[in-house]
Amino acid sequence: MFIHRRRGWEIAEREATPEAIVTGRRALLGAAGAVAFGAAPAEAQWNIFGQRPTMPKSAERPPLAAPRNAKYDPGRAITPEPEATSYNNFYEFGQSKSVFDEAQALKTADWKIELAGMIAKPRTIGVDDLLKQVSLEERVYRHRCVEAWAMTVPWVGFQLSELVRLAEPTSNAKYLVFTTLADKATMPGLRQSWYPWPYTEGVTIDEAMNELAFLSVGMFGKVIPPQNGAPIRLTLPWKYGFKSAKSIVKITFTDTRPVNFWQALQDSEYGFWANVNPEIPHPRWSQAKERLLGTDEMVATRIWNGYGEFVAPLYANLKNERLFA
Ligand code: MTE
């Protein structure tokens, strides 16, 4: 993703610039103090060198198996594991898609999550402890990045609603805010001070209670690797991928709608709701199609990323909201 404030004399990136060049330019934009965040055009190559990614070092991970929930049939082939684990967005480790080497510095042992705000007992809980209190399952979900690439992943995790119940929100709580790790010692991307670190995201309580909303701790039958958001990340398959915050350290229950990371950078391009809709183009590119990682195939994007039967009712009374940006 890429925020680029366009001046009058510039043409759109998709009219002119392949991703390799856009990506190389980010450092310059950053150095100049510009707000830099670039969505790759749909036809983008695999990485900044235009090569397919190599297998990440973290491919050897401990097994984490759970029964597959067949209710959520993705209707398309699962993305090969090497592709899904080596083409990433994790800006804390850098702006390229090839951050898996850098991300191996993430320290996930004894990971804790602070539960804060409008809940019965604000407290800190270890992920290991949390996992003893929820039921793990495997779900194969489609993932659609706002940059028009997509993948299909068998996640291992549990419904976010289970965590909400454990947290016991008060009746005033209307939103959940997810704050993710910002560790200057291990995350070189944090040196890019024009970004509003830490990376945060938010959903409404109703969205959090929806059966699709998932917290992932594994993928492909193994513990989730650092580059995909270890040890725990959100997975919201009907929304653009930037809503799926990685490496969560705090969940705050609040009555105030949060401003998320990308929204703080460029509200005109990235909003609070960010539900997938092929009919509503991003201001700088079409959202009609998506490129499946691991193939050169472009397929039609579906409204709600194909999950309308589960989530469309959530938004029935919100017609005046900017639901799809
Ligand atoms: N979470 C954090 N903390 N930092 C990020 O840069 N990028 C988001 C999301 N969560 C991001 C993040 C974006 S833009 C996408 S598309 C997905 O993570 C990518 O997830 P993946 O790398 O596992 O495919």
CATH topology-level name = Sulfite Oxidase, Chain A, domain 2
Distance between the termini: 14 Å
Main beta sheet strand tally, sense and closure: 7 strands, mixed
Mean pLDDT: 87
Give the overall silhouette.
Answer: globular
List the helices and strands and how they pair.
Layout: H1 13-16, H2 19-31, H3 81-84, H4 100-103, E1 112-117, E2 123-126, H5 127-132, E3 137-144, E4 149-159, H6 160-167, E5 175-180, E6 200-204, H7 205-209, E7 214-219, E8 222-223, E9 233-235, E10 248-254, H8 261-265, E11 289-292, E12 298-300, H9 308-311
Parallel strand pairs: 1-10, 4-11
Antiparallel strand pairs: 1-2, 3-4, 4-7, 5-6, 5-10, 7-8, 7-9, 11-12
Bound molecules: ligand MTE.
Task: Describe the structure concisely for a colleague.
The protein has 325 residues and is α+β, with helices and mostly antiparallel strands. It has a single domain (5-315), classed as Oxidoreductase, molybdopterin-binding domain (Sulfite Oxidase, Chain A, domain 2), CATH 3.90.420.10.
What does this structure look like?
The protein is α+β, with helices and mostly antiparallel strands. It has a single domain (5-315), classed as Alpha-Beta Complex (Sulfite Oxidase, Chain A, domain 2). Helix content is 16%, strand content 20%. The chain is built from 9 helices and 12 strands. Strand 11 (289-292) and strand 12 (298-300) form a beta hairpin. The protein is globular. The two termini are 14 Å apart. 44% of the residues are buried. Mean pLDDT is 87; it is low at 5-37 and 39-52. It binds ligand MTE.
